[in-house]
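debug: dumping io for the single-chain case to check the tokenizer round-trip. Nothing else runs in this session.
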Amino acid sequence: MTREPGAGTPELDTEAPESGSKPDPIEAALEPARSEEPEGDAPASEPPPELDPATRQRRRLHLTLLLGGMVAVGIMGTVGTALSPKLLANYPLLLIALAPGMPNLVTVAPATELVPFLGVAVLRLLLADPLYFALGRWFHKDAVAWAERRAGRFGATIRELEEAFSRWGSPLVLIFPYGIVCLLAGASKMTSARFWTLNVIGTLGTALVVRLFGESLSSPIARLTGWVDSNSTWLTYVIVGIIVVSYVARRLGGKQPSQGIDQEIDLDSRR
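debug: decoded output
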């Protein structure tokens, strides 16, 4: 119901104030905001145009292949971890070919020859690095933001690492040649030659240090390997159970489902 002027509500004085009279405080407050409004029909800044369909499709294919490769490498590691009690004593090189974690490298070192150990360890440790490097090179800041979201509560650590990379990029690749460092190297536009030189040298150095450390513990490692081999069946069941429970807990932990490739990383980004 419309209320009539004079029915309990005073009329607003719409006439302009006389010269020398005190200005209306409401008008005075609104004046700066009005002065900032664009005059006429001046268009606002437009977002950059989208890429053409062929380029966008090619970028989608690149992203799909990169993420698919990362998933495949992750599955290899999970299978190797699940089967580690069976593989440790009988197929040590296969174990580190699947799951080259530091504990596996250390325990396998005394039971293998130097050259096969270094060959398998270095190649397997390098396997995922070009995927992360290419992801950073092709998708830049979007790839870094994707890694931060995937890291969950460790996203702040990745941001700190990104800040450190601007000053210490080459030493980080040499000393810590892991996935996130490789991604930051690609996003920083480090040359491929420098990246691969530092990465291979750093990975080979890591494998040699781990080898020497494992050999220094050869006696206790031999006893551990014998015990694991004798109890490999039930240990395998325990490890598989832990992996399944961890996976289910992550799925039920309130984590948002994946948004799909287009939302995970902007295919139209030109940065």
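debug: round-trip ok. The mean pLDDT is 80.
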